């Protein structure tokens, strides 16, 4: 499937660039930032996230004066979503493996000062923090204040950038970093790609999020052609994360629409079972 936002030649370049040893992917992402090859950058926050935070305060509540909460955006890129969480009162942390990406994020922060998209949406604005680090290690914790968990963790295009071999680690890490009463937001993308087409972005139908976040840390069975084998999954255990909401957003980035103008992305919200 070709779209105006990410034409076939861009996807082919990404696929070729990430062939080989997955342990080198961090350096390869940084190389793309240094080259300025950024087909994933849309220039503004995800419309699905904008609407979710504005319309579903019942899920997230509001930050009261003097009580700060922390939000994490792994693979934050230029940081549009980080700035949005700050506007809602979260102390927002944008994490990326590329220092070049975070220099661009700092420029976004300067350039967007006073933009109505990032006007204060709560009692007070939260802090904005840019951290170079690897989501799968604890090295970045030296730059995070407070306890070692986050009240909100956001994923849009981060999981799609990771090869399927890292999905068990991704889900385990989300569970580990989520505060006891915290929430995870996933804007599920790309849901329309066949698994066999590879990536990045890797195919992510809703069954992948449900399979992995319901079974954090477990290696799940995949078929090279069809993807996740749902029929072979075991029942989720006590260490699961629970899906609270799952729905197609009213709006999303253009790349999340099909040729008929229908939204193909989904939004899911997750929590620890004891937080329900």
UniProtKB/TrEMBL annotation:
Q: Name one GO molecular function term.
A: S-adenosylmethionine-dependent methyltransferase activity
Protein keywords? Methyltransferase, Phosphoprotein, S-adenosyl-L-methionine, Transferase
Report if keyword Manganese is assigned: no
Per the UniProt record, one Pfam family is: TPMT
BP GO terms, sorted: methylation
Q: Which InterPro entries match?
A: SAM-dependent_MTases_sf, TPMT
Keyword Cytoplasm found: no
Identification of the protein by name: Thiol methyltransferase
List the source organism: Hymenoscyphus albidus
Higher taxonomy: Eukaryota, Fungi, Dikarya, Ascomycota, Pezizomycotina
């Amino acid at each position: 499937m070709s779209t105006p936002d990410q034409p076939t030649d861009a996807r082919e370049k990404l696929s070729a660039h990430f062939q080989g040893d997955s342990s080198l992917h961090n350096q390869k992402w940084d190389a793309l930032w240094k080259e300025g090859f950024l087909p994933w950058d849309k220039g503004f926050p995800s419309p699905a996230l904008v609407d979710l935070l504005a319309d579903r305060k019942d899920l997230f509540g509001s930050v009261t004066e003097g009580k700060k909460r922390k939000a994490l955006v792994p693979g934050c890129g230029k940081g549009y979503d980080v700035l949005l969480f700050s506007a809602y009162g979260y102390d927002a942390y944008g994490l990326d493996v590329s220092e070049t990406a975070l220099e661009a994020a700092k420029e976004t922060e300067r350039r967007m000062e006073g933009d109505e998209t990032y006007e204060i949406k709560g009692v007070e604005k939260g802090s904005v923090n840019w951290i170079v680090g690897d989501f799968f290690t604890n090295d970045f914790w030296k730059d995070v204040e407070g306890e070692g968990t986050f009240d909100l963790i956001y994923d849009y295009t981060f999981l799609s950038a990771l090869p399927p071999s890292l999905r068990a680690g991704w889900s385990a890490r989300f569970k580990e970093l989520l505060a006891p009463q915290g929430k995870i937001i996933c804007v599920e993308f790309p849901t329309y790609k066949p698994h066999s087409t590879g990536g990045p972005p890797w195919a992510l139908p809703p069954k992948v999020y449900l399979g992995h976040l319901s079974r954090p840390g477990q290696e799940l069975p995949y078929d090279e052609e069809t993807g996740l084998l749902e029929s072979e999954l075991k029942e989720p255990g006590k260490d699961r994360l629970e899906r609270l909401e799952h729905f197609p957003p009213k709006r999303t980035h253009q790349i999340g629409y099909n040729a008929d103008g229908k939204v193909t992305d989904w939004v899911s919200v997750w929590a620890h079972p004891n937080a329900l």
